[in-house]
Specification:
This protein is mainly alpha-helical. The protein has helices spanning about 1-10, 20-25, 30-35, 35-50, 60-80, 85-95, 100-110, 115-145, 150-170, 180-195, 195-225, 230-245, 250-260, 260-280, 285-310, 320-350, 350-370, 375-380. It is globular and about 55 Å long.
């Protein structure tokens, strides 16, 4: 499950180191080419909201297989796009069909004993995070050696192999929700209204994912220009730095099983703020950028895995719908953050990006602090 999660979520991030190559082929500004980064994230949020809840209503393995095959089609459309507009449409479609990790996670949670759930979620999340971060390294090299279209062809082949692996290995998992699709969607708003832990965890994630999206989108623009002038392969190598931090994911989950996972959320938010302070002073320093990447990736893991463990502990019969609310808003945060980062870049370059993202980190800490007394501690520890 960890391997499938990492290999499929990578579809969302292959495009990031390829922005310069895509811009050159279609003869458009690099900032305009960067729009595909937030279109994939927006598509992901759409898929999360409208498709992931179905995991509480239809058989999960069947849904995972259908969605994986749809990803193959989206990747082929991207690889053969004759215009940038078609590539934008393909990117949106690719985002919608790359929700498989968010179908796998509730499935894994439903198969796991409560006292081990944090560790299992952390293990699968480590696969997801490695996929997110190493996807940039892989696509950077493939793009530099064979062109950006080759990466999408390779990804289509990977997803096809995953389809057969899932068909052979994954267990059948029966749903528990008996109502209509309309009732299923309406119940999402009921969950938002009645679950304070869900509201707090989701809002904090929105701010943190926005920082994450803004950084990884604008970092490509920073490193491809003066004084670095790195090519796509070199830029992709920075993903390895972040992937090293993903090894902490199972540890974060295990810590959450033993105590209150909300504590790790606060430390993660603080670490993300420190990362952007580091980035602000590293406009010409590769070492500073590397240190900042380690901070931001460990920080986002601490926030996300701990919050996800908290959310999964609320209502076992509604895990897909809880995950829908939690993750759809989180990835809307990523999409908005990517657009926000591009806007900040146009307004004043890297320093403005760092300051704007630091404000988002402070906002996350404010939400964390203000909701401290209103969150039931017994439920956090459940």
């Amino acid at each position: 499950m960890a391997a499938c999660t990492g290999l499929i979520v990578a579809n969302l991030y292959y495009c990031q180191p390829l922005i310069v190559l895509i811009a050159n082929e279609f003869k458009i500004p690099e900032a305009n080419a960067g729009t595909i980064t937030y279109l994939t994230q927006a598509g992901y949020a759409i898929g999360l909201f409208f498709m992931v809840p179905l995991g509480d209503k239809i058989e999960r393995k069947k849904q995972i297989l259908m969605t994986t095959f749809a990803s193959v089609i989206a990747l082929i459309i991207a690889a053969t796009a004759k215009s940038f507009f078609i590539l934008q449409i393909a990117s949106l479609f690719l985002g919608i069909t790359s929700i498989v990790p968010q179908l796998i996670l509730p499935l894994a949670a439903s198969l796991t004993a409560p006292e081990q759930r944090g560790k299992v979620v952390g293990t699968i999340m480590s696969g997801l995070l490695v996929g997110i971060l190493l996807s940039r390294t892989l696509s950077g090299f493939i793009g530099q050696l064979f062109g950006w279209r080759s990466m999408f062809w390779i990804a289509a082949g990977i997803c096809l192999l995953i389809f057969f692996a899932i068909q052979k290995k994954f267990p059948v998992n029966k749903p528990q929700f008996q109502g209509s699709y309309g009732q299923l969607i309406r119940s999402l708003f009921t969950l938002i209204k009645t679950q304070p832990v869900l509201r707090e965890a989701t809002l904090i994630n929105v701010f943190c994912f926005a920082q994450f999206g803004a950084f990884w989108t604008t970092m490509v623009l920073l490193l491809s220009g003066e004084p670095f002038n790195f090519n796509s392969a070199t830029i992709g190598l920075f993903g390895i730095v972040g992937a090293s931090g993903a090894l902490a994911a199972p540890l974060v989950g295990k810590m959450g099983d033993k105590g209150n996972p909300r504590v790790a959320v606060g430390y993660g938010c603080l670490l993300m703020l420190i990362s952007f302070i580091t980035f602000y002073f590293s406009i010409e320093s590769v070492i500073g950028i590397i240190i900042g990447i380690v901070f931001i990736d460990i920080g986002i893991q601490g926030v996300h895995i701990s919050n996800q463990t908290r959310v999964y502990s609320l209502l076992p019969e509604a895990r897909n719908r809880l995950n829908t609310v939690f993750m759809s808003f989180s990835f809307l945060g990523t999409a908005a953050g990517s657009a926000y980062g591009l806007l900040l870049w146009k307004l004043g370059g890297w320093h403005v990006v760092a300051m704007g993202c630091a404000l988002l980190a402070i906002a996350a800490l404010v939400v964390y602090g203000l909701s401290y007394k209103s969150i039931p501690k017994s439920r956090d520890k459940k």
